[in-house]
Design brief:
By secondary structure, this protein is of the alpha/beta class. It folds into 2 domains: 243 residues, Dihydropteroate synthase-like (TIM Barrel); 90 residues, Sulfite Reductase Hemoprotein, domain 1, CATH 3.30.413.10. The chain is elongated. Belongs to the IspG family.
Length: 351
């Protein structure tokens, strides 16, 4: 059992973050935001995969205006990612963004910060502030001898103070680094310093092959310690892979029950069917299925039957054939070329 740190609760649209709410999964579009059709199409795929909150870059006023049209077509809340230009933050608020990702220290004069804060108060939307290891303020680099957990955390605290001076407290915080160890250390330190909800992620994690490993270690370690309220797996890839990886991290820690939990054996010389192909095809079919099930696909009769019996449904394979189990009971024996189709058929029957 993971004992999560209870943080302040804020709402991004109808999705709560913090306050011991469920841990939400985020991703970010890589379409041109003003291309409403393409952006909506991508978001719908992410929704179907289990994305709870979507972030998108707002680079100009056309992007900001597109938010209102995008919002009509999707079912998850929007975070507008703003860099430097306070007018874009104001426009995003006017066009029904559900939250703003912005560092107040980057938008200039204090009156600009105040205008953004007042707009967020009026529209009742939160602000996520954050520091990446590559964007630590020089003052803190000098004070703490370079990029480390202290310079990252105190840079974030300064951004928060700019908002708090304007009596604004609907804040979430991220403290990302490309180094897994530095990411973990920074979030641990900040968690002891503040009760604002935390957005977890390892920034610039890379391609799926390496980025999923880095993210699973970084995000997973913190979640296992009870730290973190919302997550994004940042990958140089289709955002769909970010959402799938995020779900898998939460499932591995028993922090998310929705969706298929697929377990399979690593194969060995006892495996007499093409288990790798069966599992790969099963993953494609099962990842978006809206059923809360544990599915086991096991390659041989040594450990297979036992593992399959522990699952809601599963396969224990033999020589060119396999047994389909449900709740420990044998349903049928089927040939190898029908294993997957018969398994999927039985899963569809489960309510």
């Amino acid at each position: 059992m993971i004992n999560r740190k209870e943080t302040k609760k804020v709402y991004v649209g109808n999705v709560p973050i913090g306050g011991n709410s469920f841990i939400s999964i985020q991703s970010m579009t890589n379409t041109n935001t003003k291309d409403v059709k393409s952006t909506v199409s991508q978001i719908k795929k992410l929704e179907n995969a289990g994305c709870d909150i979507i972030r998108m870059a707002v680079n100009d006023l056309e992007d900001a205006a597109a938010l209102r049209e995008i919002k009509k077509e999707i079912n998850i809340p929007i975070i507008s990612d703003i860099q430097f230009n306070y007018k874009l933050a104001l426009a995003a608020c006017e066009n029904e963004s559900d939250a703003i990702r912005l560092n107040p220290g980057n938008i200039g004069a204090s009156w600009k910060v105040k205008e953004v804060v007042e707009a967020c108060k009026f529209h009742n939307i939160p602000i996520r502030v954050g520091v990446n290891s590559g964007s630590v303020k020089q003052e803190f680099l000098d004070k703490f001898n370079g990029v480390n957990a202290s310079s990252i955390c105190y840079s974030a605290l300064e951004e928060i103070e700019l908002l708090e001076k304007n009596n604004f407290y609907d804040i979430a915080v991220s403290l990302k680094a490309s180094s897994v160890n530095l990411t973990i250390e920074s979030y641990r330190k900040f968690s002891d310093m503040s009760n604002y909800p935390l957005h977890l992620g390892v920034t610039e994690a890379g391609s799926p092959k390496k980025g999923i490993v880095k993210s699973a270690i970084g995000i997973g370690t913190l979640l296992a310690e009870g730290i973190g309220d919302t997550i994004r797996v940042s990958l140089t890839s289709d955002p769909l892979e970010e959402v799938i990886a995020g779900k898998d991290i939460l499932k591995a820690l028993d922090l998310k029950r929705e969706g298929i939990d697929l377990i399979s054996c690593p194969t060995c010389a006892r495996t007499k069917v093409d288990l790798i192909e069966i599992v790969n095809k099963a993953e494609e079919k099962l990842y978006s299925m809206d059923k809360n099930l544990k599915v086991a696909i096991m390659g041989c009769p040594v450990n297979g039957p036992g593992e399959a019996r522990e699952a809601d449904i599963g396969i224990a394979c033999g020589h060119g054939e396999g047994l389909i189990f449900s709740k420990g009971e044998i349903i049928k024996k089927v040939p190898e070329d029908m294993l997957l189709s018969e398994l999927l058929s039985e899963i569809e029957k489960i309510g």
